[in-house]
C-alpha cells in the first residue's frame, strides 16, 4: 500500500495551496520550493499546467499514478461528465469519507485509521482505504475505538453541515453517504477538465 511520505510543505508550496490541510509554511513562504523558488518567473507550458493539475489531485486525495489512471478510465467509461465522475469517485473513497465526516483531521490520518481497523462500513470492519463507499452505506467508528483521543479531538466542534451529501449521527459516531456529491459542493480547487484533456492526449 504505497503512498507519498515525502515533505508535505514542499508539495503545498509547489502548488501554492494547503492541499494537505493547514500549513503554516505557506504563510511564510508563499513561493515555490528550491534555491530559486522566489525568483522563478518561467512561463509554464500548456502540458505543464495540465500535468500539475493531475499531480495536485493525486496529492490531495493520496492516490498514486496507477490507481489514479484506473479511476480515470473507470470514470471515462461511465455515462456523464468524465471529470466530475472522477472527482465523485475520489470523494467516495473510504479514507476520504472518514475525513469528510470529521473522524480524522487529515486524509492521511483517515487512511491510517482505516488501515488500523478502526472503521466499519455497514457494521463490518473495512481496512482498505480505497474501498468505494456507495450511497446509503453507513461509515462508523468501531465500538472499541470510539474512545480514541485522535478521533475525539477531530470531532470536537466539527461542522458536518458543510458537506450536504453526508449525514452524521453523533450518538452512534456514524455517518451515512446520502448521495454522491455534486461538483459545486466539492470544495477542492481542482480543474478536472485539464486532467481529462491530459489523459486524452
Characterise this structure.
This protein is an alpha+beta fold and 201 residues long. It folds into two domains: 8-89, Ribosomal protein S4/S9, N-terminal domain (Ribosomal Protein S4 Delta 41, Chain A, domain 1); 93-179, RNA-binding S4 domain (Structural Genomics Hypothetical 15.5 Kd Protein In mrcA-pckA Intergenic Region, Chain A), CATH 3.10.290. Helices cover 42% and strands 8% of the residues. Strands 2-1-3-5-4 form a five-stranded antiparallel beta sheet, with helices on one face. Strand 1 and strand 2 (124-125) form a beta hairpin. The chain is elongated, with a radius of gyration of 18 Å.
Q: Give the terminus-to-terminus CA distance.
A: 29 Å
Can you identify the CATH superfamily of the largest domain?
RNA-binding S4 domain
User: What is the helix tally?
Assistant: 9
Largest sheet: 5 strands, antiparallel
Which structural class should the secondary elements be placed in? alpha+beta
In terms of quaternary structure, the protein is single chain
Strand content: 5-15%
Estimate percent helicity: 40-55%
Would you tell me which CATH topology of the largest domain applies?
Structural Genomics Hypothetical 15.5 Kd Protein In mrcA-pckA Intergenic Region, Chain A
Shape: elongated
**Helix-strand string:** HHHHHHHEEEHEEH
Structural Rg: 18 Å
> How many domains?
2
The CATH architecture classification of the largest domain is Roll
> In CATH's first tier, which class of the largest domain applies?
Alpha Beta
Indicate the mean pLDDT.
Answer: 86
Amino acid at each position: 500500500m504505497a503512498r507519498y511520505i515525502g515533505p508535505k510543505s514542499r508539495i503545498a508550496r509547489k502548488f501554492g495551496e494547503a492541499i494537505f490541510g493547514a500549513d503554516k509554511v505557506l504563510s511564510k513562504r508563499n513561493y515555490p520550493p528550491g534555491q530559486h523558488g522566489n525568483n522563478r518567473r518561467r512561463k509554464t507550458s500548456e502540458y505543464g499546467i495540465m500535468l500539475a493539475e493531475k499531480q495536485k489531485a493525486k496529492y490531495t486525495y493520496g492516490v498514486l499514478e496507477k490507481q489514479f489512471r484506473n479511476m480515470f478510465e473507470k470514470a471515462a467509461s461511465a455515462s456523464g461528465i468524465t471529470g466530475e465522475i472522477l472527482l465523485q469517485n475520489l470523494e467516495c473513497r473510504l479514507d476520504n469519507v472518514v475525513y469528510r465526516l470529521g473522524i480524522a483531521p487529515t486524509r492521511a490520518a483517515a487512511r491510517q485509521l482505516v488501515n488500523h481497523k478502526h472503521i466499519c462500513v455497514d457494521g463490518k470492519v473495512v481496512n482498505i482505504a480505497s474501498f468505494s463507499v456507495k450511497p446509503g452505506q453507513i461509515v462508523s467508528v468501531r465500538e472499541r475505538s470510539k474512545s480514541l483521543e485522535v478521533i475525539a479531538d477531530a470531532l470536537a466542534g466539527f461542522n458536518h453541515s458543510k458537506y450536504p451529501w453526508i449525514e452524521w449521527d453523533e450518538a452512534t459516531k456514524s455517518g451515512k453517504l446520502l448521495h454522491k456529491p455534486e461538483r459545486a459542493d466539492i470544495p477542492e480547487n481542482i480543474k478536472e477538465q485539464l486532467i481529462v484533456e491530459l489523459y486524452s492526449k
